[in-house]
Specification:
By secondary structure, the protein is α/β, with parallel strands linked by helices. Helices cover 32% and strands 24% of the residues. The chain has ten helices and 13 strands. The chain binds acetyl coenzyme *A. Residues 28, 32-33, 36-37, 111, 150-151, 154-155, 187, 210, 212-213, 215-216, 219, 249-250, 252, 277, 307-308 line the site of acetyl coenzyme *A.
Length: 320
């Protein structure tokens, strides 16, 4: 028993901010940002919450899949920018959708979150615990940014993407995932500092901080390895893969991965120039755009690959 994607959806907040817009409010330039990352614009939320964006994406995916909210057995929602510590954003989404039969939880695996969500969905369907699952990746990263730190805030954007997946015995799905918590500090955002009647603490909440060159080194080493692991495990010829859908962090990372895998860059679709890095949302947003543009046909073999905070990584081979 494995999974098939029935339909996808995505949502980007209305406000689109270009690099030139940013250069009016901070000391940066289109040339600096685009030459190092490939990013030219991102969407920033001024009113949509994390739940709002997830619900808008989910409604599109459910409609395309012809699945009623009541048919969903689970909602797995990947995010590092939830609306509340509790309830989970997955539960908030369930309530908005009326997915009354779904069991819901959030997954925190940063930019690998959607991959980890799909992997969990696959495990649940294999265990015959579920037939239809909604997997969402959604981020409001703009609220976790220090807007005085130009080295990080220019890289990220807000948005949501999702897929409705169904158990399907006829489909092959192969997964490789991993984590290395010892490297967690290279990309982090601390939550509330320790504070109680025994500990007096005036520290405020922190923002995303990143050692850019360490993250770059990790990504260009780990991503080709995890993709190759999936190819080897399934005895799949990389020439048979139609698309490698990578987390949209940085164009230079994707170019380096393509070179290392010796695969034509045309097989690596990108939208980071318009969306920036949307962490857990980046893969499902791109997948939905590819789907809506008619780039995917049933039976196409694709590999999705996420990497990021934790540190975490993973690749999934599936047939569309
Ligand atoms: N605009 C203009 N100048 C800037 C900006 C900016 N937005 N940000 C930093 N600078 C300056 C720095 O102050 C520094 O100036 P100095 O030399 O006078 O001190 C100079 O630019 C170079 O800074 P570096 O940090 O060395 O820049 P680098 O060339 O390494 O590029 C970058 C930084 C783009 C982050 C790079 O390290 C990278 O691509 N890292 C990969 C990490 C990544 O993509 N992370 C995404 C999130 S993680 C994930 O999704 C997995």
């Amino acid at each position: 028993m494995s999974i098939k994607i029935l339909g996808t959806g995505s949502y980007l907040p209305e406000k689109r901010i270009t690099n030139d817009d940013l250069s009016k409010v901070m000391d940066t330039s289109d040339e600096w940002i685009s030459s190092r990352t490939g990013i030219r614009a991102r969407h920033i939320s001024v009113k949509d919450t994390t739940c709002d964006m997830a619900v808008k994406a989910a409604r599109i995916a459910l409609e395309e899949s012809k699945v009623a909210p009541e048919e969903l057995d689970y909602i797995f929602l990947a995010t590092v920018s939830p609306d509340c510590a509790t309830p989970s954003t997955a539960c908030l989404v369930q309530s908005e959708l009326g997915a009354v039969n779904a069991t819901c939880m959030d997954i925190n695996a940063a930019c690998s979150g959607f991959l980890f969500g799909l992997n969990t969905a696959m495990a649940y369907t294999k265990a015959k615990m579920a037939k239809k699952i909604l997997v969402i990746g959604v981020e409001t990263l703009s609220k976790l940014m220090d807007w005085n730190d130009r080295s990080t805030c220019v890289l990220f954007g807000d948005g949501a993407g999702c897929a409705v997946v169904e158990a399907d015995e006829s489909k092959d799905v192969i997964v490789d995932v991993g984590s290395d918590g010892s490297l967690g500090k290279v990309l982090m955002c601390e939550e509330r500092p320790l504070k109680n009647f025994l500990v007096d603490n005036d520290e405020s909440m922190s923002y995303v901080s990143m050692n850019g060159s360490e993250v770059f080194r990790f990504a260009v080493k780990k991503v080709p390895k995890t993709v190759q692991a999936v190819l080897d495990q399934g005895h799949i010829d990389k020439d048979d893969i139609k698309y490698f859908v990578l987390h949209q962090a940085n164009q230079r990372i994707i170019e380096s991965v393509a070179r290392r895998l010796k695969v034509d860059l045309d097989k690596f679709p990108m939208n980071l120039d318009q969306c920036g890095n949307t962490s857990a949302a980046s893969i499902p947003i791109l997948l939905d755009q590819m789907n809506k543009e008619g780039m995917l046909e049933r039976g196409d073999k694709i590999i999705l690959c996420g990497f990021g905070g934790g540190l975490t990584w993973g690749a999934i081979y599936l047939e569309w």
